Amino acid sequence: MKIAMIGFGGVGQAFAEIVEEKHQELQQNHGLDVEIVAVSDVMKGAIYQPDGLNITKLLECVKRTGSVESYPSSSQTIKGWNSLETIEKAQVDVIIEVTYTDVKTGEPALTHCHRAFETGKSVITTNKGPVALAYQELTEKAEKHDVFFGFEGTVMSGTPALRLPLETLAGNEIKEIKGILNGTTNYILTAMESGMTLNQALEKAQALGYAEADPTSDLEAYDVRYKAAILSNHVYGVHLDPDEIFCAGITGLSVEDIQEAKRDGEKWKLLARISQNKGKVKATVQPERLNQDDLLARVSGATNAIVYECDLSGTIMLTGAGAGLKETGFSLMIDLIHCHKQKQGSKIGGGSHS
Ligand SMILES: NC(=O)C1=CN([C@@H]2O[C@H](COP(=O)(O)OP(=O)(O)OC[C@H]3O[C@@H](n4cnc5c(N)ncnc54)[C@H](OP(=O)(O)O)[C@@H]3O)[C@@H](O)[C@H]2O)C=CC1
Ligand SMILES: N[C@@H](CC=O)C(=O)O
């Protein structure tokens, strides 16, 4: 399976490391031979090597020079293609879209997905923009072109918050979904409980690779609003315009507010709630003060949790990483395995996203 990567930041590089680390296992356990043949990034440049890039060498070049273009050329190497040229011209099966999430337009990722499908390529992405804004259009287009559209990592990174409700919990009616769906803000709120300021904690979250390129998306909860829209589309099959979701972030909370709640045996958490009633879906995103015995109050740091209120299974809670480079890289790998199985006409543990 030949892959082109659009965007080569924290998650992109972590994914490349995973492909290198797990190459043999993927071959042995899943019959999947993954080859990264192209990378296109804004500042790091672009390279297309039709017979495959040596990942160790590629990562070493980026670390040493900040550019993928310092990778040694052969007679077949093409350098300098922008993202659309790479999507259109590279001979690949899958586009891994890991550019930044734009919470207003979803671009450039939205256009990347459209062009990939139109040119017969599957897309696997952790970018929330296209999935939150154009879920239906893109899933239909992927189906029309008989390609795969994977986006497990868009909600709770490598924790399977999207496959679980549709596959493992299939047959239930899920009346409400609620959860802590942003790693950065949960990390910040936890750090503020020990007296750290919001800005100090944010700097740490950025250094750990949790935050968005523009952390306003995390702090003002636009990121969670997108995730709520994705859950509505994916789990309930109902399009929710992100702009219509009530959304308040954590910037209004002071260290004193958090300490005061702590003295009262409570915790502030940024919660998303999505509920359905007779085909109508409502969603809100805002900080809520929870009793410390509440299961969600116990979720700390960059860990996230999601609760599905099911008519048959009862309350199901899934908890795990909400952000993190390796964890998010893993979400791309699991989608890749599903994509491969779908191409082979089989499925692992249920269906794929397209
Ligand atoms: N980090 C995490 O824990 C998680 C991240 N995500 C999502 O995954 C995606 C990637 O995240 P992350 O790696 O952390 O972000 P980064 O900001 O580290 O990486 C994004 C990369 O995309 C590049 N880029 C931007 N525009 C283009 C373009 N038009 N063509 C090619 N490359 C482009 C950027 O280039 P340059 O910097 O050179 O401009 C940058 O290298 C984001 O959409 C994020 O929301 C999802 C779940 C968890
Ligand atoms: N910035 C996001 C990354 C994952 O979606 C977060 O902190 O949750």
TrEMBL record:
Its EC number is 1.1.1.3. The keyword Amino-acid biosynthesis applies. It catalyses: L-homoserine + NADP(+) = L-aspartate 4-semialdehyde + NADPH + H(+). GO terms for biological process: threonine biosynthetic process. InterPro entries: Glu/Leu/Phe/Val/Trp_DH_C (IPR006096), HDH_cat (IPR001342), HDH_short (IPR022697), NAD(P)-bd_dom_sf (IPR036291). Residues 161-337 form the Homoserine dehydrogenase catalytic domain. Signal peptide: none annotated. L-homoserine binds at residue 212. The active site is at residue 227. Residues 3-96 form the Glutamate/phenylalanine/leucine/valine/L-tryptophan dehydrogenase C-terminal domain. The keyword NADP applies. GO terms for molecular function: homoserine dehydrogenase activity. It comes from the Bacteria. NADP(+) binds at residues 7-12. Pathway: Amino-acid biosynthesis; L-threonine biosynthesis; L-threonine from L-aspartate: step 3/5; Amino-acid biosynthesis; L-methionine biosynthesis via de novo pathway; L-homoserine from L-aspartate: step 3/3. PANTHER family: HOMOSERINE DEHYDROGENASE. This is Homoserine dehydrogenase. It comes from Halobacillus faecis. The gene is thrA.
